[in-house]
Every structure is written in C-alpha cells, then in structure tokens.
Amino acid sequence: MLESTITCPECGHQKTEVMPTDACQYFSECESCHTMLKPKAGDCCVFCSYGSVPCPPIQENPGRKCHDV
User: Fold this and answer.
1) How do residues 26-61 score in pLDDT, each as one tens digit?
2) What's the superkingdom here (predicted)?
3) Residue 50 CA neighbour count, 13 Å, CB half
4) CB distance 57 to 33 below 8 Å
5) In contact, 26 and 43? CB cutoff 8 Å
6) CB proximity list for 26: less than 8 A, separation 6 or greater
7) Whole-number pLDDT of residue 65
8) Rg (alpha carbons) of the chain, rounded to whole number
9) Quick check: 30 and 49 in contact, CB under 8 A?
10) Which of 10, 19, 67 is nearest to 46 (CA)?
C-alpha cells in the first residue's frame, strides 16, 4: 500500500499522502496548524509515527524495526 493518512498530533488534521518508495520522509508540515512533524524516537519517518500505514520498507519486512531501515 503506497498511501497513508497522516494525523497531526497537535490539531488532529488528517491528510492522505502517497509515500515515497525509495526514501524515508522525515518531515511533514500540517496544512491546518502548520506544525512541523518529525518522526518519534525510534521511527524512521513521519508515516511510521503518524500514518495509518507504515512506510513501504516496513510493510515489506514486518519484523523489521524502523531504526533498521
């Protein structure tokens, strides 16, 4: 699955985005409150921290940890 819905932890705004398949997306700006989202400690990208679906590398290897990406 290449789409994930990011939910802003500050205001709850949601946006569905297409995830890159060849890189981790480290930053994402909330369209509503303009908070700059970055991954939580131990996560490789904003999709793993705030998305409805983890990034493609984690999807492909379910046992893999984000810090291994």
Assistant:
1) 999 999 999 999 999 989 899 999 999 998 888 887
2) Bacteria
3) 26
4) no
5) no
6) 38, 39, 45, 46
7) 65
8) 11
9) no
10) 19
